[in-house]
Amino acid sequence: AQSVTQLGSHVSVSEGALVLLRCNYSSSVPPYLFWYVQYPNQGLQLLLKYTTGATLVKGINGFEAEFKKSETSFHLTKPSAHMSDAAEYFCAVRETGNQFYFGTGTSLTVIP
Amino acid sequence: GAGVSQTPSNKVTEKGKYVELRCDPISGHTALYWYRQSLGQGPEFLIYFQGTGAADDSGLPNDRFFAVRPEGSVSTLKIQRTERGDSAVYLCASSLGLAGNEQFFGPGTRLTVL
């Protein structure tokens, strides 16, 4: 069965510091991988996705993620955190079917 | 509108009542998904439509839950005999339905069962 694990339900970083949000998945086939962000009282918004090709994917707002097949990981990073990055982040995986499997989310706090 | 819309934004009902939640997908999106998101959790898949038919309803928790999409656009999630455990945010998403396409989410309907 497909599963998505996000290590760390809460992450705090100082403004200007590196952001690293972890995502590991289990899949028997090469998956499609997604990161979504959810701001308070808003719907989920796509940050970036990996389908095929280059394993380093760049998204909106300066975020990027790298697909590492050997580690079954798709960690999200941003070199310098901004106050506006404070939100809930969800990693999601889709296999060959149409179901998307979401992690439990990581709440990012940015400390001024 | 350009995005996915859901109505109502909030619904408060009493245990045992029937509720309907509506989703208007992005025009032209053939795939439509319903999810349930409980506090502190990620979205949990309920059902997926491709066109008018439910291509995968394996996520529906029991037969009190049912969803329709009669004309391949608007969808309604129906919950009979609501229970307090049904309280959650119900999310709708749509996509072009092709492999690799991302889903576009609506703002959700917050259902509270008293």
Concise account of the structure shown:
Chain A is mainly β and 112 residues long.
Fill in the keyword field for this structure.
heterodimer, A: 112 residues, mainly beta, six-stranded mixed β-sheet, four-stranded antiparallel β-sheet, 12 strands, 0% helix, globular, B: 114 residues, seven-stranded mixed β-sheet, 48% strand
Q: Can you walk through the features of this model?
A:
The complex is a heterodimer of chains A (about 110) and B (about 110). With about 110 residues, chain A is mainly beta. Chain A is about 0% helix and about 55% strand. Chain A has strands at about 5, 10-15, 20, 25, 30-40, 45-50, 55-60, 65-70, 75-80, 85-95, 100, 105-110. In chain A, the strands form three sheets. In chain A, strands 2, 5, 6, 10, 11 and 12 form a six-stranded mixed sheet that branches. In chain A, strand 10 and strand 11 form a beta hairpin. Chain B is mainly beta. Chain B contains no helices and eleven strands. Chain B has strands at about 5, 10-15, 20-25, 30-35, 45-50, 55, 65-70, 75-80, 90-95, 105, 110-114. In chain B, strands 2, 4, 5, 6, 9, 10 and 11 form a seven-stranded mixed sheet that branches. In chain B, strands 1-3-8-7 form a four-stranded antiparallel sheet, with no helix packed on it. In chain B, a hairpin with an 8-residue loop joins strand 9 and strand 10 (about 105). Chain B is globular, with a radius of gyration of 13 Å. Classes of the chains: A mainly beta (about 110), B mainly beta (about 110). At the A-B interface, strand 5, strand 6, strand 10 and strand 11 of A face strand 4, strand 5 and strand 10 of B.
- SS strand fraction of chain A: over 45%
In the predicted model, the low-confidence regions of chain A spanning at least 5 consecutive residues are none
The overall pLDDT average of chain B reads 92
Gross morphology of chain B is globular
CA distance, first residue to last residue of chain B:
33 Å
SSE inventory with pairings:
The complex is a heterodimer of chains A (112) and B (114).
Chain A: E1 3-5, E2 10-14, E3 19-21, E4 24-26, E5 32-38, E6 44-50, E7 56-58, E8 64-68, E9 73-78, E10 87-94, E11 100-102, E12 106-111
Parallel strand pairs in A: 2-12
Antiparallel strand pairs in A: 1-4, 3-9, 5-6, 5-10, 7-8, 8-9, 10-11, 10-12
Chain B: E1 5-7, E2 10-13, E3 19-24, E4 31-37, E5 44-50, E6 53-56, E7 65-68, E8 75-79, E9 88-95, E10 104-105, E11 109-113
Parallel strand pairs in B: 2-11
Antiparallel strand pairs in B: 1-3, 3-8, 4-5, 4-9, 5-6, 7-8, 9-10, 9-11
